[in-house]
TrEMBL record:
<dbReference type="InterPro" id="IPR008279">
    <property type="entry name" value="PEP-util_enz_mobile_dom"/>
</dbReference>
<dbReference type="GO" id="GO:0046872">
    <property type="term" value="F:metal ion binding"/>
</dbReference>
<feature type="active site" description="Proton donor">
    <location>
        <position position="486"/>
    </location>
</feature>
<feature type="binding site">
    <location>
        <position position="415"/>
    </location>
    <ligand>
        <name>Mg(2+)</name>
    </ligand>
</feature>
<feature type="active site" description="Tele-phosphohistidine intermediate">
    <location>
        <position position="186"/>
    </location>
</feature>
<keyword id="KW-0808">Transferase</keyword>
<comment type="function">
    <text>General (non sugar-specific) component of the phosphoenolpyruvate-dependent sugar phosphotransferase system (sugar PTS). This major carbohydrate active-transport system catalyzes the phosphorylation of incoming sugar substrates concomitantly with their translocation across the cell membrane. Enzyme I transfers the phosphoryl group from phosphoenolpyruvate (PEP) to the phosphoryl carrier protein (HPr).</text>
</comment>
<dbReference type="InterPro" id="IPR040442">
    <property type="entry name" value="Pyrv_kinase-like_dom_sf"/>
</dbReference>
<dbReference type="InterPro" id="IPR006318">
    <property type="entry name" value="PTS_EI-like"/>
</dbReference>
<dbReference type="GO" id="GO:0009401">
    <property type="term" value="P:phosphoenolpyruvate-dependent sugar phosphotransferase system"/>
</dbReference>
<feature type="binding site">
    <location>
        <position position="325"/>
    </location>
    <ligand>
        <name>phosphoenolpyruvate</name>
    </ligand>
</feature>
<keyword id="KW-0598">Phosphotransferase system</keyword>
<dbReference type="InterPro" id="IPR024692">
    <property type="entry name" value="PTS_EI"/>
</dbReference>
<dbReference type="InterPro" id="IPR000121">
    <property type="entry name" value="PEP_util_C"/>
</dbReference>
<keyword id="KW-0670">Pyruvate</keyword>
<keyword id="KW-0813">Transport</keyword>
<keyword id="KW-0418">Kinase</keyword>
Length: 556
C-alpha cells in the first residue's frame, strides 16, 4: 500500500528505485588494557592510520574538485588536529589500544562541541565519519560508506558525510534520503552540485526496509513508499515536463514580461567553472575564496598563488560579473593561523570580516591579489565582505579596498539581522548588498544550519526571513544600488520568483539549479512575482508562505 512521507527537498528531480542503506558505522572497539611496552607501537599505528585517512580524504577531494574539495580538505584537517592526536597519544600511554584511544578521544571532542552550545553540531557527522574511517583502518575492517551495488538504487542514511556525498556515482545513486541534515548542510549543497535528487530531515528514514521501492521528489520533499503504477507515471510525467521546460530555456534570466534577473553561479574555485558555464550562468554571484586558505591552513597562501586562482575564475566570464567574497574564516571553517582556539561560541565570536580586520595583512594581500588578477580583463569585478554587522564594518572594508588600490565595486553581505535592519546605513559606505540567506536564517532564528532538528527554522520560506530580504531590497532600491541573493534560497525556482517580487536584483546559486530557475522565472510576469511575494509575507509559517505563493503563480 502506498504511503507518503514528507522531508525537506533539497535537490530537484525525481528518483524511483530500491532502497539501499549506507554501510553500518564501525562498532565501538573493546576497552582492553595493553602492556606499557606496547605503547610506542600503538602510538605509531594510530598516527599511520590518521595520516592514511587524511591522505585518502585529500585524494577524494582532488577527484571531486570544487566545493567538495574544500569540504574534504577541512575533514582531513580535522583528522590531523594536533590536540586530538596528542589526546590519542596520552590515552595509549596509560594503557588504551590505538583504536580505543581514537574512539575515546573523538568522543571527548564530540562532547566538547556539544557543550559549546552546539553551534558546531552540524560537524558531528563529519567528525564521526573521520573517527569511523580511522578506527576501521586500525581494526582492518571495510570502511563505512556507500553500499556496493551493480544496479541503480536510492541511498538512505542517517546522515551522509561529505567524503561519501562528494564521490557518489549519479549513474548508480538515483537519489538519496537522510534522517538528519538540513537544507543548507554540506550534503545538501553537494547533492545540488551533483544534480542528484535528495531529501533530508526525514524522520524514520533509516527504518525503511532494504529493497523497498520508493519514489523521491527532491523538489517537494515527498517520499512515496511502494508507489502505485499511477503515482510512478504521474511523477515520471512531471519529471519529463520539467526536463522539456529546461531544454527550451536559454539565455539571460528574465520574467515573461522582460524584467531582467541575472542568474549567477556560486563557485568554490576553478573546478566549478565548467558546470557554471554549461548551465549558462551570466557570471559568478559568490566566489568562495576560502578553498585556497583551507588548502594551507597553517599559513595564508602566497599572493602569487591567489592571483593565479582568481584569474582563472575572472577569465571564465569576460565582460561578465564576478562577485568575490573575501576570506570567510572562523566558526565551522577554522584556520590555525587565524582562528582563536578558545572561543566559547565561535558562531558569535570572531569570524568573517572580524578576523580580517584583526589581521589586516591577510586582507591586504588578498585584495592586492584580486587587483592584480583583474588587470587587463574586461570583467566586472565586485568584492564583498562576509559578516558585516553595521556601517562601521562596511566603512572599514571599503577603506581597506581603496588602500589596496582595488578598482572594483565594494559590497557587504547581509547575513546578520542588524545588517538587514540597517541596510540603508551600510549602503552609505558600499555599492551593493548580497544576501547570504543560509547564515541570515541561522542568526535570525538561532537555529544552526547543520542541525536537522531545527530544519523548519532554516527554511528560507520563513516569513520573518522574507521580511528581512524585503527590508534589504527596499533599502537598496532607495539608494539606487543592487541587492542580490547568493544563499541557497535562490536555488528554489518558486522562491526565486518570490525573491524577484521582493525586489532582489540578481540570484546566485549552484550551477545545477540555474536551468530550473530560468525556466520558472520565464513563465511569470514581474507583477505576478510581486503578488506572490506579498502573499507569502502575509502568512505566519513557511509552509503557508510556500502554498500562498504557489497559489498566486499557478493562477488559483
Amino acid at each position: 500500500m502506498e504511503t507518503t512521507l514528507r522531508g525537506v527537498g533539497v535537490s530537484h528531480g525525481v528518483a524511483i528505485g530500491e532502497v539501499r542503506h549506507m554501510g553500518t558505522a564501525v562498532l565501538e572497539p573493546p576497552a582492553k588494557q595493553i602492556p606499557a611496552d606496547e605503547a610506542p607501537r600503538e602510538q605509531g599505528r594510530a598516527r599511520q592510520a590518521v595520516e592514511a585517512v587524511a591522505n585518502d580524504l585529500i585524494a577524494r577531494g582532488n577527484l571531486a574538485g570544487g566545493e567538495a574539495q574544500a569540504v574534504l580538505e577541512a575533514q582531513a584537517m580535522m583528522a590531523q588536529d594536533p590536540e586530538l592526536i596528542a589526546d590519542v597519544d596520552r590515552r595509549i600511554a596509560v594503557g588504551s589500544s590505538a583504536e580505543r584511544a581514537v574512539y575515546d578521544a573523538f568522543a571527548a571532542y564530540r562532547a566538547l562541541l556539544a557543550n559549546a552550545g552546539e553551534y558546531l553540531a552540524g560537524r558531528v557527522a563529519d567528525l564521526d565519519d573521520v573517527r569511523n574511517r580511522i578506527v576501521a583502518r586500525l581494526l582492518g575492517v571495510p570502511m563505512p560508506g556507500v553500499p556496493d551495488s551493480e544496479e541503480p538504487y536510492v541511498l538512505i542514511a542517517r546522515d551522509l558525510a561529505p567524503a561519501d556525498t562528494a564521490l557518489l556515482d549519479p549513474t548508480l545513486v538515483l537519489g538519496f534520503v537522510t534522517e538528519e541534515g538540513g537544507p543548507t548542510s554540506h550534503s545538501a549543497i553537494l547533492a545540488r552540485a551533483l544534480g542528484v535528487p535528495a531529501v533530508v530531515a526525514l524522520p524514520g528514514a533509516t527504518e525503511i526496509a532494504e529493497g523497498t521501492v520508493i519514489a523521491v521528489d527532491g523538489s517537494t520533499g515527498d517520499i512515496f513508499i511502494d508507489p502505485s503504477p499511477e503515482k510512478r507515471a504521474e511523477l515520471t510525467e512531471a519529471a519529463a515536463v520539467r526536463a522539456s521546460a529546461l531544454a527550451a530555456s536559454a539565455g539571460p534570466g528574465a520574467t515573461s514580461d522582460g524584467h531582467k534577473v541575472p542568474l549567477l553561479a556560486n563557485v568554490g574555485g576553478p573546478a566549478d567553472l565548467p558546470a557554471a558555464l554549461e548551465a549558462g550562468a551570466e557570471g559568478v554571484g559568490l566566489f568562495r575564496t576560502e578553498f585556497l586558505f583551507l588548502d594551507s591552513s597553517e599559513k595564508a597562501p602566497t599572493e602569487e598563488k591567489q592571483v593565479a586562482a582568481y584569474r582563472q575564475v575572472l577569465e571564465a566570464f569576460p565582460e561578465g560579473r564576478v562577485v568575490v567574497r573575501v576570506l570567510d574564516a572562523g566558526a565551522d571553517k577554522p584556520l590555525d593561523f587565524l582562528t582563536p582556539a578558545d572561543e566559547p561560541n565561535p558562531a558569535l565570536g570572531v569570524r568573517g570580516l572580524r578576523i580580517l580586520l584583526e589581521h589586516p595583512d591577510v586582507l591586504r594581500t588578498q585584495l592586492r591579489a584580486l587587483a592584480t588578477a583583474a588587470e587587463g580583463l574586461p570583467v566586472y569585478l565586485e568584492v564583498m565582505a562576509p559578516m558585516v554587522a553595521d556601517r562601521i564594518d562596511a566603512k572599514a572594508f571599503a577603506d581597506a579596498c581603496r588602500e589596496a588600490g582595488l578598482r572594483a565595486k565594494f559590497g557587504a553581505m547581509v547575513e546578520i539581522p542588524s545588517a538587514a535592519l540597517r541596510a540603508r546605513s551600510i549602503l552609505q559606505e558600499v555599492e551593493f548588498l548580497s544576501l547570504g540567506t543560509n547564515d541570515l536564517a541561522q542568526y535570525t532564528f538561532a537555529a544552526d544550519r547543520q542541525v536537522g532538528a531545527v530544519s523548519r527554522l532554516q527554511d528560507p520560506w520563513q516569513p520573518a526571513l522574507l521580511d528581512l530580504v524585503a527590508t534589504s531590497a527596499e533599502a537598496a532600491r532607495a539608494e539606487g544600488k543592487s541587492c542580490g541573493v547568493c544563499g541557497e534560497a535562490a536555488s528554489d525556482p518558486l522562491l526565486a520568483c518570490v525573491l524577484t517580487g521582493l525586489g532582489v536584483t540578481s540570484l546566485s546559486m549552484g550551477a545545477a539549479s540555474i536551468p530550473y530557475v530560468r525556466a520558472t522565472l520565464a513563465k511569470h510576469t514581474l507583477a505576478q512575482c510581486e503578488r506572490a511575494a506579498a502573499a507569502a509575507r502575509a502568512t505566519d509559517t513557511a509552509d503557508d508562505a510556500r502554498r500562498a505563493a504557489q497559489a498566486v503563480l499557478s493562477g488559483e
